[in-house]
Each structure stands twice: as C-alpha cells, then as structure tokens.
Amino acid sequence: xxxxxxxxxxxxxxxxxxxxxxxxxxxxxxxxxxxxxxxxxxxxxxxxxxxxxxxxxxxxxxxxxxxxxxxxxxxxxxxxxxxxxxxxxxxxxxxxxxxxxxxxxxxxxxxxxxxxxxxxxxxxxxxxxxxxxxxxxxxxxxxxxxxxxxxxxxxxxxxxxxxxxxxxxxxxxxxxxxxxxxxxxxxxxxxxxxxxxxxxxxxxxxxxxxxxxxxxxxxxxxxxxxxxxxxxxxxxxxxxxxxxxxxxxxxxxxxxxxxxxxxxxxxxxxxxxxxxxxxxxxxxxxxxxxxxxxxxxxxxxxxxxxxxxxxxxxxxxxxxxxxxxxxxxxxxxxxxxxxxxxxxxxxxxxxxxxxxxxxxxxxxxxxxxxxxxxxxxxxxxxxxxxxxxxxxxxxxxxxxxxxxxxxxxxxxxxxxxxxxxxxxxxxxxxxxxxxxxxxxxxxxxxxxxxxxxxxxxxxxxxxxxxxxxxxxxxxxxxxxxxxxxxxxxxxxxxxxxxxxxxxxxxxxxxxxxxxxxxxxxxxxxxxxxxxxxxxxxxxxxxxxxxxxxxxxxxxxxxxxxxxxxxxxxxxxxxxxxxxxxxxxxxxxxxxxxxxxxxxxxxxxxxxxxxxxxxxxxxxxxxxxxxxxxxxxxxxxxxxxxxxxxxxxxxxxxxxxxxxxxxxxxxxxxxxxxxxxxxxxxxxxxxxxxxxxxxxxxxx
Length: 699
Hints:
The chain is an alpha+beta fold. It has 16 helices and 29 strands. Mean pLDDT is 74; it is low at 53-65, 256-263, 310-386, 471-484, 568-573, 634-645 and 677-686.
C-alpha cells in the first residue's frame, strides 16, 4: 500500500489560506459568507430551514441558526449505534479503527484500515462499545465481515474506502436492523464551509466518543473536506456528520497544526483533519455498480438508494427504529436482566437499563457479581498524528519465545502439563509450527493457553538485567511514559480459545485487563527488540481478569522480578539474568464466575536466577478473591483504604505444582529458597506471608 502522507499534507498546505479566511469570517459573525458557492450556501440553508426552523414571530433570524433543536440529541442517540469499533487481525498486521453501517448490510471504513480481502476476513466489528447513561459499559455485539459477498476498495491515495458486507454475528444479541445505518448521498445541500461537524468515533480503541466541539469545517477539495476537531489514532473510518446527522465525509487523517493564535499572538495547538467526501464515494460506488455480480450489485444498489434525497418536509429519519429479537429477551431472562431496548413510538427512544447482573455458580449459593457504575475518562492526548489507525506487525516467524538455556549452566524447560491440562491445552491453528504443542512464542517470552478457561495456563519469560529497558506503554517507544493500552488478538490461535475485549468491556466494573508477563519484563536488548517485546505483551493470550485494585495493591507481586533482579542477581554479580513463570490458579470450590467464565482467585509467580552458590528460585502466590466484593465506581486512582486485603504468600514450589497441575522440574524445585529460611515445613506446604520485599529472598 502506498504511503499517502505526503499527498495529504500537500492538500493541507494548499488549503491553508482558505482555512484562515473561513476562521476569520466565522470569528467575525459572518458564517454564511464562509461558503464561496452561493448556490451551495442557499441549498444548505434552505434544507436546514425545512428541517428545523420554526415559523411565526420567533423564527430564526441569526447567522445560519446557531441553536439546535433537542431532536439533535435524540437523532444522534439513534445514529450512534451504526458506528462500530474495527479490529483487524490479518496474518502480518493488526489495525484498529472505526467504521459505520451504510444500509443493506454493508459496512464502510478506510482502505488503510482494511486493505484487502485477507484483512477483511480477519476483521471483527464491535457495536455498542460505549458507556451508558449510568456510567456503565453497555453489552456489545460483534460481527465478522464477509468479503466474498461484497468487497469494494479504493486505495488511500484515491478515496481511501473499504465497503464490505457484514458477516455472521459472533458475539452479543443485537441484530443489524436494530443498529440502523448512515445513509450515503451525493446531494449538494449537506454541507457548507463554516458549519460545525460532528464525529462519532473510537479513538485509541476507547469506548465510543462524539467530537462536538472545536469542529469547524474550514476547506474543501474535489474529493475531501478539511475540519478542525478532536480525533486520534483509532478514529480512521469514523463518520463525519453535519448538525442534521447527515454523513458528509469518511474521516481518514488527522495531525496537529499551530495555525490558531490567542489574543496575544501566541499559537494554540489544534487538530487539522481530513475526510473523504461522501458525495465522491457515492459517485464512485455508483459507477462500479455495473461491474458487480448479481448479489453484490443488489446489496450496493439498495444502500445507494437509501441515500437518495427525501421529499421536502418529510423529516424522514435515516435509522430504522430498534427492533429487539425475541431470543434477546429470552437470553436476558437467563441472567435476570431486562432487554437493553424495547419497541418505541415513532420519534421516541425508550431505553431500559439492567441494574443488576447475578451470576450463579454451583448450587446457586455463591456470592453474586453485580454491575455498578463506571465512568471512563481517557488520559490526556499527545499531539502525534497520522493516518488514524493503530498498526502493528504480526509477522511471528522471527519470535523465538522463551529460552530454556537462558541462565548459563542451568536448563529450565517450560513446565510440563498433567493429564487434565493436556486435554485443555489450546492447539495452534493448522499450518503453524508444532501446532499441537500449543506454544505461542513472543519476543523473550512464551504462553500456553487453556482453551476451556480461555486464558493462559502459564507464561514463561526471560529477563536480562544488563539490557533491561523501560518502554512507553502508549507509544511503544523505549522511554519512561504513561499508560494507554491497546490489546491484540493472536491470529495463530482460535479466538474462541481466548477471552477478548467483549468480556473485559462487559465486566470492566470489576476487572482490569491484567498482564501475566508484565509489559516491562521482556523489554530488554536493543531498542527494536524491546519495543516489539512490549507490543507482544498486549496480546489477549497474555491477559487475565485481575481485579482493578490488583495492580495498585499487590506491590510485591508487581515488583518481584525487579527486586530479585536488583537484590538477588545484580548484587551477587552472577550473570544478571532471571527467568519467570506465572499464571492463574483455579479452584472449583471457591472461584466465582462471570457469566460462563471462571475467575481465578489466585495467581502464582516463580522467579529463578543464578545466585552466589548456584541456582535459586522463589515461589509467590497472591490472592484476589477478597477484593471481588468491591466494584469500581469511577475512573482514576481508587479510594485509599485502611487495609486492602491482598494476601501475598511466599510458598513452597511443590505447593504451586499441586495447585496448578504443572511440573517445573527438579532444577527449580531443588533451588527453592524457602527451605533456607528456617521456616517449618508443615506437610511440605510452608508459606510465608510477604510483608516486605526482603521476604522474597533467603536470609
């Protein structure tokens, strides 16, 4: 795919003077004069007047009717459901973006998001990924795409669109007709320079957001529109609307600019964006109709017909009203919740919100997990822009994974699985090397997945203290920086074997997407290796449901590797390398369930290193079950509690083996330092409550 960066920036440069003129006219209260085409300006104003202007003594007389009717909110609430979050997991790349339904079961996003049929087949679209009126995540619905029915592409250097037929539903309960669509049209009365535009999007993979401020349409070319508003990586493919919720552009590019000054002449940073004009896309699709087969031609013709101008004064909506399927109510009745929406009278929206979700396990006597309120506020963004789709390279051929001989003189192979775990081991897809062995190799670590539990059996990681680097979690670059998680599916293993974003979105009031192999653990070597390793830790295969307090409260768990590295290895001057094994511990007697997913009450960690007198190892178990009664009610740092009950125990490695069904081998068992601590071995299951980092190392 050609790089279209230069071309877009040339267009930005060419419209610089026009943009400045539009801003001056709007600032002077002459918004109508910002549109140079008198015919377009008149057509646009006439259409607005027909739709929203009252008649009589209180008719609008201001500049282009600045006030909006309350139907702006209700129509926006309807149309936002047609916007979806796009995840592309192709053989060599992963991309996230936005997109929207255009009618007749067709979905549109950018070509730089879905670049070919292979990418389309590896794509899932998640709808209703958003926060509801009470601050809680809505139930999502996921669809696959079906490029065999219809796939139309226009490369990024042209119109940068991908129109694909919606495929089967893989998760959730919403039907396509419930989600509605955004009608395409080449009508010339949908926009004028100087108007405000609105974008519904999934920036950085966050829950759905609407950009409604600082949103001036400032320039136009034959095929693009330029506007100033807030977008970010992941916004590629979002619909750009006017205030009547007509879609006028397909967003595909954004970057910072410093073209605005304050009263003192100091530059104010802003975002200049480009979208492909819907009228240009409409005409291009119309020209391709005759070249399609019967089924594809019918689908596209239906979608284009939906966008034809409506008769004046009808006020026809562009979304079909919600129509919940019968089986949706039946499914909700199984968990004691009401359907998310019920049939409404024309022109109204009625939403019934589930206030409690009860999960029963065993004989129904276990505690219930309830869904509280959560408000998601994203962190501050940096001024870094480009084509707004998150990308990563998914060529796994050069991932070598965990190295059993990493610590010189000691062979520490991956742990062996007992008979039960062997039956639950998730194999890799056909065609992958050693598929039955199930080892997912990443940079400096490996993972094996339990296909029944849908999370890792264990991860195994090599850490080199001499070249240990910190990697920016947001940008992927080697440096110290803040958070900003985007997680990926691994195409080498079936998605049905791994918990994905739909689960973590639904249960975010209780659980974070918790790393097993910590993102900083494998980030050593040169900068390129460290950055690739950091990205690799953000695979859902390395993710587990960890209570949101876990990362805050379990400091010995989080810091064990670094403490052992700094105090047990570097201080001893022995090789400066450690190996770490970790994973969940399941116990059918005490574990709660979230839907069909069993939540591990505990996690284990084993750290091995070369000490002054030979191989050393330490086992750690951390318990999160006492946290599960606390629900997240707001974003940010949780309230400080007098005592956060996260019991962390240094335990005999034999005990970890019994609780997990794993065999770590004689070398690690014999090196267990708990035997040197002078602690009594009660039935071979000694455990020491960790109250200080020093408890992790032998006296």
